[in-house]
Amino acid sequence: MLPVIGVSYLAVMSTLSIAGGTLSFAVITQRAKGFSGSFSKLNKDTYIIDENFLKLTNDEFREFAVMRLEDKTIFSSLDKMHEITEGVLSHTSEIFDTLSATGSDFTTELALEACSGIFNSTAKGLPSDEYHYLLKLALIPSFNMQLLNLIDHTGTAEKLITRLNEKTVLINRNRDEQYRFNRLFREWLRGEAMIRLAESERRNFYDMAASYEEEKKNLSSVVEFLIAAESFDRLEDYLQKNFQHLILQENRAHLVDVFSEIPADVFRNRAWIPLAFGYILISVSPERTKDIFLHTLDTFTAFGNRSGTIISACGMLIYYCGVAGDLSEGEKYFVRISSMMTETCDELEEPLKMVVCAAYGQGCMNFKSGHTAAEYLNKSLAIAERYNAENFKLYLYSLLVSAYMTMCERKLAEKYCNLIFQKLTTVKYDSFMKLSLINLLIHHLAMTGQFHFMHLLMNMVRSKYRLHMEHSFRLSGFASICELEYAFSRGDFDYAKMIFSRLPETNVKNMPDHIAAILLSFKAISMARECNDNASAAAELSVKTRQSETNPFFTAFGEVSAGAAYTFAGNHKKAILHLTKAANQEKPPINENAAACAHAYLSYLYNNIGDRMRAREHAIFCIRLMKKIGYTHLSALLPEVLQNTCLYTVNEPSASSFAADIARAKIDLAFDKKMRPIPIMHIKALTSLSITVGQSQLDCSDISVLFRTMLAILLSSHGFSIDQELMQVYLWPESSKENARRSLDNLLSRFRKLLTDTFTGIDPKNYITLQNGMLRMHNINCDLERFNALIKSASDYYSRGEYMLTAIAVAEAATIYEGRFFEGLTEIIPVDCKRSETDASFINMLKLMNSLWYFLPECFNPERFFDTFLDSFMHETDMVSLAYSYYAKKGRIQKCRDILNRYIEFLNKEGYSKTEKAELIYLIKTSHIN
Q1: ∠133-137-141 over CA atoms, to 5°?
Q2: Which residues contact 352 (CB under 8 A, 6 or more apart)?
Q3: Predicted confidence band at 223 (pLDDT cuts at 50, 70, 90)?
Q4: Mean pLDDT score of the chain, rounded to an integer?
Q5: Is 226 within 8 Å of 206 (Cβ atoms)?
Q6: How far apart are CA 182 and CA 187, in angstroms?
Q7: Whole-prediction pTM value?
Q8: Long-range pairs of 455-459 with CB within 8 A, sequence gap ≥ 24
Q9: Are residues 395 and 433 in contact, defined by beta-carbon separation less than 8 angstroms?
Q10: Could you give the residue ranges of the DSSP H alpha helices within 407-512?
Q11: CA angle (638, 639, 643) in 5-degree steps
Q12: Beta bridge partners of 698
């Protein structure tokens, strides 16, 4: 059965390719719908070729372009060309002919001109009334039969659309019975409509279309059509009555363009229209909302409209607290909202009440208390969940994270961070909102010391959201603070200097006071730490900048930073004054993180001036607060200050274990049997062997095979501990017990001497011992153990749906893995087992990366691991499948072929049978489908 439009090149070629030499039966039609009931009756040799089959796919389009276009420079526009033609072969062919003939670059105008003949021939034979209907319908994106009946009671328009739908590819119908023109055809018709239809006729049609969409409660289309009809009075009335529905709109980016078409004088002379525009912009370009909300607030106040007034005031509060970061200005609007809450909020529709409670909760977080903030934010969240307002729920999650951070409720903050992380892929249109969410995650990671994942997110933000960052001093300031947190936690002042060099003084002055004050305090600490005479002046400036701030949560951090700067500058009187304020906060919200940090600095200060009793008291206060809030990282706490705290508390019964764990994790410090501090020994085994203590490294290039084997067996054993006799059997299997024992004693003595000669001042017995027949390694940090532990934790987190914690663990694990565990050492059971375990962890890490790629493809890229290690893991089908699946999802077909060829070569070399090879290759080829 030939298609109505005739046999096209594509139809013939596709049919022949399907037939494969023997064509049983082919049905070629533009409408497969009529055959839907017969699909089950058709045998496998029968194919239904519908309208989509008669269009070029993206790959076919490119192949056709290579065949028809000689000038490869034109290929840069292929994707855009395919999009606008929707793959229709006749349109594509005409455009290619024009491009080849003229040598021009592709533009929409060139495409319209090239296809004008096709479109004219379609419209030329139509009666004038039918053509008239086409011109009107081209003014709107889509339509259905009900709308056709409204504009034409005779049925002529309906018959026309049905006929065109059946006989051409210029009009399409979806499952919802909505019709739309081919994109290029619609562009041509709209151009014709602007010439042939009177302006009044176009406006009347838009007005009629708006009425129809209003019945369907399709707010976005109603707004668009009323603006096109220039019915602004009607639009003002419609928005006033339906403002709650606008709040629930998920995709607002399209409406930004629609509202931008409204003349400026319309905004000036109305209130609900600009208010709607402000709430549309707030998650897309919030920096533009300030003047809009000021105008609507003044207008609604003048007319005594309470609902409009409180919604406008909420917009101003959101702007100053969430975008500009000017808390002093924000507090004015918080006070105004507070005075209206009881009387006005109850009168509002639920979606509007949701907005007011969210804004009020945001204000409480900054100016009242975290507990009150959480109360109102949860009220707002309950409404958002009832209305399935997904984007607003995300916004509320972000506010709840901030609220629980001010309450130092780490677990609750992590809960909402996890919810945000899971939903990041759903934020497709509101770029500023997505940036704000990611920035919040960065802030939380910095506050809790999770710097590996923080840096992945930071790099993504700086590359992908550069313009938004430049427009928000609040966001760019917080980003710098987070990076300084990292630098100070490591005592890396060179890195801190690099951050400061990216912050011109004028930028700091333009930032919100609490952010500028923290940055200046960090700078003061850095200067004081390096004995710069200007450190005290910088600290004074930070204190002065902070004077206008009313939020004690932020000022507590400022007090700590100023006190720290004065501590290193030697001005102990001023240091104690500021640190005591932070340690003994009275006004909520109480910042227990800052309080713990202040106690740590006070302990360090009193230790330096010889008052050990007070130093110990403050150190114990610090550790107790850290245990209470569950933080192992404190802001602006330098390593030497944390070390002082741990040294004072490691003997304290109620804090010793916690203090020892912090010392080990944060400052590479362990304690011997007499609780004296010793440095951690770092051993890298997931690459060439490396042993480091402090800044010194053992040269392992000439280390003997016996040393390497002994270390490999110890590192493979549970708890880095093994029975002496078993070790002897592994090392000297053919020696007697007595000879083997003497050999082990000798090997151990030589190893201890090697350590003593390399690392000055250490006692090797703190790191390797032989007691009661057990050989053990102590006080070491091995990348092998850390890597396996991280991947186990990541797998557990992922199985529980805790994706944020999964990402944190995987991000750190990815920085550790550098190669297989003692790859050249084989046929030793514990080493082989540990290598297999670590290989499995590595593949599991790649699987988790593949899963996390769905949430943040910019951050989790396993490609470098495939490039480096695929050949080493060719024996692992899971590894090959992961690589194939990854490149298949990215559309890199040649890379997939290369992986398969290398895998087949490996299978041939290993002697796999033909059946086995076929089965394995099938598994890999279908892995990306699962």
Answers
A1: 170
A2: 243, 244, 247, 307, 311
A3: very high
A4: 85
A5: yes
A6: 9
A7: 0.81
A8: 455/486, 456/811, 456/856, 456/859, 456/860, 457/856, 457/859, 458/482, 458/483
A9: yes
A10: 410-423, 431-447, 451-464, 466-471, 473-490, 493-501, 505-510
A11: 125
A12: 691
* Of 349, 344, 334, the residue nearest 305 (C-alpha): 344
Q: Tell me the C-alpha distance between 561 and 551, whole Å.
A: 16
Environment class of 251 (CB within 10 Å of its CB; exposed 0-12, middle 13-18, buried 19+): exposed
Q: So what's the pLDDT on residue 71?
A: 57
What integer pLDDT is reported at residue 471 of this predicted model? 67
Q: What are the tokens at 324?
A: 């500009």
3 state DSSP class of 641: helix
- 3-state secondary structure string across 336-360: HHHHHHHHHHHHCCHHHHHHHHHHH
Determine phi and psi for 27, rounding to 5 degrees: -110, 115
Tokens of residue 799, six digits:
């199985």
DSSP at 127: -
Query: In whole angstroms, what is the distance from residue 213 CA to residue 218 CA?
Result: 5
Q: Which amino acid is at 924?
A: I
Using CA of residue 791, residue 795, residue 797, residue 802, what is the dihedral sign? positive
Closest-CA residue to 313 (of 326, 331, 328, 287): 331
Contacts for 259 with CB less than 8 Å, ≥ 6 apart: 223, 227, 273, 276, 277, 280
DSSP state of 106: P
What torsion, rounded to 10 degrees, do the Cα atoms 113, 115, 120, 125 define? Answer: 180
Report the candidate in 730, 772, 731, 777 with the shortest Cα–Cα distance to residue 752.
Answer: 777
Contact of 316 with 294, CB cutoff 8 Å: yes
Cα distance between residue 613 and residue 648, in whole Å: 10
**pLDDT tens digits, residue range 282-340?**
877 888 899 999 999 999 999 999 999 999 999 999 998 888 878 888 889 999 999 99
Pairing of strands 677-679, 669-671: antiparallel
Residue by residue, DSSP assigns 22-66 as ---EEEE-S--GGGGGGGGGS-TTEEEE-TTTTB--HHHHHHHHH
Task: Specify the 3-state DSSP secondary structure of 692.
Answer: strand
Whether residue 535 contacts residue 563, with contact meaning beta carbons closer than 8 Å, is answered with no
Write the single-letter amino acid at 608.
Answer: N
503-545: pLDDT as tens digits: 776 667 777 777 888 888 888 888 888 888 888 888 888 877 7
Give the separation between CA 521 and CA 518, rounded to whole angstroms. Answer: 5
What's the rounded Cα separation, in Å, for the pair 69 and 401? 55
Residue in 437, 443, 454 with CA at minimum distance from that of residue 815: 454
CA 416 to CA 545: how far, in whole Å? 32
| Burial class of 906 by CB neighbour count within 10 A (0 to 12, 13 to 18, 19+) | middle
Task: Provide the pLDDT confidence category of residue 551 given band limits of 50, 70 and 90.
Answer: low
The pair of three-digit structure tokens given for residue 502, joined into one six-digit string: 């990216």
The pLDDT of residue 74 is 58
Tokens of 131: 């053509």
Q: Rounded distance, CA 819 to CA 24, Å?
A: 55
Contact 226, 246 (CB under 8 A): no
Q: Can you read off the two tokens belonging to residue 310?
A: 């409180």
Sign of CA dihedral 302, 305, 311, 317: positive
670 DSSP β-pair partners: 678
Q: Which helix (H) or strand (E) holds 311?
A: helix 306-318
